[in-house]
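W.,

You were right to be curious about this one. When I first looked at the sequence I had no strong expectations either way, so I just let the prediction run and decided to look at it fresh. Below is the sequence, 529 residues in total, followed by the output.
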Amino acid sequence: MSGTHDELKSRRKRELLFSILERQGLLDAGPDELARRRASSFGRVDLGLGAYYYPRSFFKEGGTLYFLGGVEGSDAKRLYLAGRDKLPSGFQGAGYGLGGYKIIEAELSYENYLAAKERLPFLAPVSLRGRNTTIGCGDRLGLAGPGHIRAASGYAISPVLAQQSMRELTLTGRIYPEVVKDAAFSVLQEGYEGGYGADGDHLKTLADIDAAVDVGMPMITLDLTEVMNPAPAGWGDQAVTDAFEALSVAAKERVLLDYAGKTFNLGGESITLSALEAKRCALMYWKALDFSVEVDARLRAKRGEHYDLEISIDETTAPTIPSHHLFIAAELKRRGVTVNSLAPRFIGEFQKGIDYIGDLAEFERQFVVHCRIAKAYGDYKVSIHSGSDKFSAYPIIGRLTGLRVHVKTAGTSWLESLRAVSLYEPELFRLMLDKAYRYYPDALKLYHITPDLAKIPKAAGMPDEELPGYLALPESRQLLHVTYGGLISDADLRPLFFSFLKRDEEAHYASVRDHIRKHIELLGVPRRG
């Protein structure tokens, strides 16, 4: 009886939803009219009695209307298809009729994303190789996409909305198909047609790369940590010379011919590689360069020219010396690797979720050399990893790169979800902060941060209005930043947290939008004309 009663209530809510849409002229509106309405719409429209829709998500293709909406009592928002004639095939969901309309109500699944992108191509991620300024918007929850889109909209910057590493997938319990479809449906929700990227971040194996590419992720960040050999950086002259002799004849000839004792001019700056340093570079990077060639060929075979390869050499214990960056860049260019962006490890500390730590003047002095190397060897984008919240460094980065740059953010958007919690659910925030200490030791095994947790004040007696201050304090920011895996899998916290994000999604989006927009503006990204 209860099930029948609930079904009747849900049907009445759907009838309400579609009757209002019909009265508003949305069900039969043409593409041009829908585009006009999208331009003047924002957020979610609640119709009362538990029915709602997203006005920016309305698109007409081939006589079929597509939009996102839902009714309370169902577990999540839905993709709706509506039309007077036969609806497209390939969608998994409940089909029914209301008035003179045929309707499909479909879950926001990967399978339905695949069907939807065939009709609405802007839902699929694209290569951003031709875009000058890009920002990686890691979305650990799969719920921050609308905030990221709103942050980037109106600025001359392109967002990478789906960006996850294998580490993050493990900690969040997600898989790449889920990451892609979550980004795609956020694009539909916001009516965003500007093109977005998807990044298989910090991947180290061909199997992981295939997993990302095969679900349509055009960008691969190739982490060379496990194929680089950092040991020769600390070897003496004789050890380097002896080990170099063990390399192949072809490798030795190439290094001695092209690099040993050579000076490279970089437009007002020059770098000289001594014979010893050239040999050291070969010992450290040759195997990694070979792997880069293999990965580049694999991506081209799978996607033609529609891919973005980023080379990551930032996960090291020491900063990338400019001469080593030059060696890597020159060899990648000589070998024909299509490098879209490259991430050195810069001087200073780029720790998670906090501002730059170090001497900004020295950072600027070295950073300009990295930018000149990038310009000279392919004009690829310099990539800033752990780039979130480096507010003091952004003006330097934007100016010296000429905004030919990729900035990666990830955990900062997770922190903005917690900012929303601190504003609207203070007791839940206190509980999450308290439990973060429990998950911190395991998190330290995966992340390099150095906060002094003793500086974090107790939350128990903190007035509600002061709780957002924890998101401004570096120590508590880092504590909460790295413990996301434990917090979102905690059996007590998870239902409360996700229930809040669903109920108060606009508060979440606003926090994310404002924070990411601060990054964009401090970089100096101009508004679109």
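Here's what jumped out at me. Residues 2 and 8 are 10 Å apart (CA to CA). And, maybe more interesting for your project: The chain has a mean pLDDT of 95.

Coffee later to discuss?

I.
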